[in-house]
Amino acid sequence: MPASPVHVPPVPAHWLLPADPASVPRARRAVTEALPAGCRPQLRDDLRLLASELVTNAVRHHSCADRGQLVELVLWPADGHYWVAVSDGGPALSLAPADPGPDSCGGRGLLLVDAVSAAWAVVPRPARGKSVVAGIRLGRHTS
Fold this sequence. Notes:
About 30% of the residues lie in helices and about 25% in strands. By secondary structure, it is α+β, with helices and mostly antiparallel strands. A hairpin with a 5-residue loop joins strand 4 and strand 5.
């Protein structure tokens, strides 16, 4: 096959996971295995954290009402970032990081997403549901 004169971007890594808590470690493992061998440890850890927190939120808050639903996880490099998107069938709510009290056992997931990512947003899906997309700048990870 002849080489194309047009730059073809990398194909995103894509997984469909059951809306189940067991999908959270599967998401972390999938992201780790999809990254290139020379990936910097801090970048790998931050991407695993994003996948873990976003899949946890999708399973815990938005998809669990119907255990038959799936959570979609996508990982791809583009525009100097690695992007993670987690989609579910839940309503496209405006998500904002919570301000949990010091004794709270949860509620810090989006605070972590906000701290680790260069940008993140909730994007409504055309038919149903939403995607939460977060990106980590590649240049941030120099060690």
